[in-house]
Structures are given as structure tokens and as C-alpha cells.
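S.,

As promised, the (2S)-2-hydroxybutanedioic acid run. Input:
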Amino acid sequence: MFELLKEQPKDKILALVQTFREDKRPGKIDLGVGVYKDAEGRTPIMRAVKKAEQLWWNAEETKAYVGLAGDPAFSDAMIDLVLGDAVPRDNVAAVATPGGTGAVRQAFELIQMANPNARVFVSDPTWPNHLSILKHLGMEVVLYRYFDSESGSVDFNGMLEDLGGMRPGDVALLHGCCHNPTGANLTMPEWDAVIALLNDKGAVPMIDIAYQGFGEGLEADAAGTRAVVKGCPEVLIAASCSKNFGIYRERTGILMAVHHDAARKALTQANLAHLNRQNYSFPPDHGARLVTLVLGDATLRADWEAELEAVRQGMLDLRTQLASELQRLSGSDRFGFVAQHRGMFSRLGLSPEKVEELRRDHAIYMIGDSRINIAGLNAQTVPILAKAIVEVGA
Ligand code: LMR
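Predicted complex:
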């Protein structure tokens, strides 16, 4: 049987992790996978998370199953974090999932169960795994223009024009903040225009929010998502705790389904629980427990917020430093957008050949589409990257 299996396309982000590991050159620089790293190149366990683990180690009395939807306290805490008071809790069905990817996968499956004819409109470019999962599920994908590589900013006219082709029941996948891979984000008036268009078309928004707190701050990063939830009758939201709580390997995420008619909640909730049961029964608890403890304790929460804010500021400083170093060395403002982008990523707009040259001749690793992880840099490596970019003539 196994001989019937076919080769699967490699995930370009994970393939790069492997190539980087195998590179023996000292001083190699990893700007690939979206994992936060401090100035020493470590991915630390956040202080509040470590403390919550200690508390939980003492308090935990059983490893028995929780519930198909996970602990409702986790859902409450996350709904509050992401949606604030944009919508009453009674209007939100939610299940814990294994990471943000789990939430994205469950969301696509829910769409497919509800409306097998739905087409999913996806930004061009987007996180490659969005496309991969949609293909795996056999769902129809339509790309919408999103990024203008020349200016490094959102091609908003192109986006509106392409979303204008949506039909009732189609789904628009939007990045809540810190667009992956480009780093270019919608302004609030642009969110409002998208909301009006989706409502006009009878289309359903789905938001993937995996970097809340990495862009403009916890509240500001959720503003687009909250506007959509207020403005559209039905919304799906896949949220990840991997990055903002730094608990990548614990696989912690949540899928929320919001309906303006609270009477729809029970049916949606039952379908979400059913989906969890079919795919893995109970979602992992440990990471969700830590998040619940941190968000529910004023001291832990304040410390988490402070550490997250320091992470965010550090990435902003690196952005400013990189943009000005590139400006100084190249004598042009071409890369000024690096300072305007937000979140972990920026797409630099280099050709695949230049990206390859940077890897081969300078041991600098970025994704083939020239996405860099800003957090892979530090004050010492920013000038090295800037010099290399100018040297390859990018
Ligand atoms: C990324 O885009 O690098 C992250 O979301 C990690 C991943 O799973 O791809």
C-alpha cells in the first residue's frame, strides 16, 4: 500500500529550517521560520508562562480529559483578548485547537460542511500553509491582489477589485494583523471598506490572527478583527497563542465562530465540537491552561503584557535600524517600507536569484519570496544584512 503514496510538495518554510541547520558556516543568519528570537538568538519561555507552569505543576490533580471544546475558561479568556467587547459572549461559538494551524484547518472544514460550494478568497501572497490546507481539502481557492512589491505596501485598489468578484457564501480569508508574509497591513478605513464590500456581496470573512501584540500592540492589533465582528453578520476567527505567548510546541489555538443572531450559537458550537471529535477528539490542554492562568491573574497578565511589549518594541527598533542602514548604504529610500511594516515579517521584494545569492555567498537565510523574520536579526547582524543586500545588487 505505501508504495502507492506520492511525493508531497515540501513546505518552503520548514525546508529552509532544515537547510539552515545543515549549514556549518559560522555567523550564518536565520531569517526564516516565524519564531521569535532575542538578541542572543534564543526563543525564551516568557516569564509569566514559566510562572504559570510552576503554579500548575503544583495545582494539577488529574490528567483526565477536559471537554471536546477544551476548557470554557480558555475560550472565555481568548474571546476577551481577541474580541474585547465587540460582541456579546453569547454570540460566539468556540473550540480550542492544536495551534493556530488547527484552528485554520477546522475553520476550512466547517466552511466545507456548511457550504461545499464556497470559494475561499486568499491574499496573494499568503502563508503558504493556507493554500496547502485548502488544496488538501479540495476547496476552491481564488487569489486576491494584496501587495504591491514596488512600494512594499498594500495594493488596496487591487484587493477591492478582486474581492468584488465574490459571490454570496464565498469566504474572504484576511490576516487580522501583521500580514504573513508581507508585513503590510490594512488601515482602519481600509478595514471598513472591506467590511462594506463583503456585506454587499454576502460574503463571509474569516480572520487568521496569529501575531496579536507583535504589531501596534495587543488592542490595536485586534482593532480590524473587532470591526469585522461588529460589522459583519457571520465571522470565523482562527487565533494562535504560539507567538504572543511563545508556546509554539504546546500547540495552542482557538477557533471562534461569531453570529449576530445568538440563537445560531448552539448549532455552530455542536458542529465545532463534532469536528474536534472527528479530527483528534480532545484538543491539547497544557498550553491552553497556561494561557488561561496568565490571562486570569492580574500580576501574571501585567508581566506577560510587559514582556510582549518589550518584544514588540525590540522588533520595531530592528526595523528602524535596518531601514536606515539600507538607506545609508544604498543611498535610496527603496527599502523605507521596512520601517512601516508591522509584525515579525517583511517581504523585501528581492528576486529568488538574489535570495539564493544571499544564502550561498553570505549565509543569510530568508524565504524564497524574500520574506524576512525581523526577530532573526540583532543590532550586530542588521548592518551585515544591509551590506549583503546592497552587495548582491538587490
Ligand atoms: C511562519 O510563517 O514561519 C510560521 O507561521 C511558522 C509556520 O508554521 O510556518
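The pocket of (2S)-2-hydroxybutanedioic acid is lined by residues 13, 33-34, 127, 129, 180 (CB under 6 Å). Residues 10-44+305-391 form a domain with the Aspartate Aminotransferase, domain 1 fold (CATH 3.90.1150.10).

- D.
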